[in-house]
Amino acid sequence: MVWGKIIATLMMGLVPIKAHCPLCTAAAGAGVAITRFYGVDDIIVGFWLGALLVSTALWFNKSLKREYIKGQEAIIVLLTILSLVIPLYGAGFIGGSKHAIYMMMPSGSLFGIDRLLLGILVGGSLLVGAMKVSTIVKQKKGLLFPYQTIVFIILSLLVSSIITWGILK
Length: 169
Description:
Blueprint: H1 2-14, H2 20-37, H3 42-63, H4 72-91, H5 100-103, E1 109-110, E2 113-114, H6 115-141, H7 148-168
Antiparallel strand pairs: 1-2
Helix pairs in contact: 2-3, 2-7, 3-4, 3-6, 3-7, 6-7
């Protein structure tokens, strides 16, 4: 048991640890679980789900270490989103089907787009935007504080969720 801890500690020193993507993914996943538990509107749940999907796709793409095909990152993001949206559509969570489980959640559309789907698209965009803002801040001012990017992402999702909740309430 002690040798296992020693080996794990030594290995952590040898392997560079990139904490941003796993932390971001875990935070977005926690946000989805919390909002669903409390019955929050589908668009707000979609914000967190979209951020989770895009974060997971970017994390996976980064783990590939190189670009195998032109536009690989965008393709992976699109396939990741579709890998969830298509089953949600088939199950009736997107598209307004009146399955019994769907009726327990807020439904309908906003601007002619399903609330959950719109939330997923906006949430993914919020994540990408917050990452870009953090990159710009790092270039101009340097790193302001540890985990700056994840804080920017979580704040953008929280502020957007609160504003949307206030408008829809």
